[in-house]
Structures are given as C-alpha cells and as structure tokens.
Write a structure and sequence with these properties.
7 strands; alpha+beta; 4-stranded antiparallel beta sheet
Length: 115
C-alpha cells in the first residue's frame, strides 16, 4: 500500500493555513453550528486579532498566518477543492473532507497560549 500523499489537493500555503484554522474553529464551542442542509460545521464567528496575534481556543495564532480567514478568494478556492462550502460573507461550511484533511501545519501555526 502506498503512503498517503502529502497535500494531495495541492492547496497553496495560504489555503493550507486557512484550512488549518477552520478545522480548529469547527471544533470550538461558539464559533460554528451544524449546517441545516448537511450537518457539517457552519463557521460564522471569526476571531478578532489584537496586535500581531489572536486567540483561538487554547492556541495563539500570529495574524500573518490568518490572512485567508476573511478572504473571499481563499474561500472560493477551498470550495472548488471540496474541503469547504463558501457562504460568503456570512460564513463557511467545513465539509467532512475539510475536517479530515491533514494540512501538516497544526504544530507550525497553532502555538500554546501562556496568557
């Protein structure tokens, strides 16, 4: 059996970072609710940065790693790749494929919080 291919959908770095953050938002209380049609997480609440970072549950994320969270073009690209369904500007549904996709960036952009 062949090993899993890294980034099989060929998401670009901005798309990978955004998907990583959407995966966390989909699991956090108060940031998403089940989509009426699919039952998948419908993310409608996005964090507001303060300074050069923001808090995402137990994590601290640098603002520079989150430029795709409010970027319509990124949402459209993630929809085209099948990992999300854009409902711009209200929110974005994370498909099962998006929830399961290994971006490889969790340990890179999600930092433990000390405050």
């Amino acid at each position: 059996m062949a090993p899993n291919k890294k980034n099989p959908l060929k998401l670009n770095p901005l798309q990978l970072k955004t998907l990583t953050l959407l995966q966390v938002l989909a699991r956090l209380s108060g940031t998403s609710q089940p989509d009426a049609a699919t039952g998948q997480p419908f993310i409608t609440t996005f964090p507001d940065p303060h300074g050069n970072h923001f808090h995402l549950g137990p994590y601290v994320v640098m603002t520079q790693d989150a430029t795709g969270l409010r970027n319509e073009a990124v949402w459209v690209a993630l929809t085209r790749k099948g990992v999300a369904e854009s409902r711009w500007p209200v929110g974005i549904v994370l498909t099962q494929a998006g929830q399961d996709y290994d971006t490889g960036l969790q340990d890179v952009i999600l930092h433990g919080s000390d405050h």
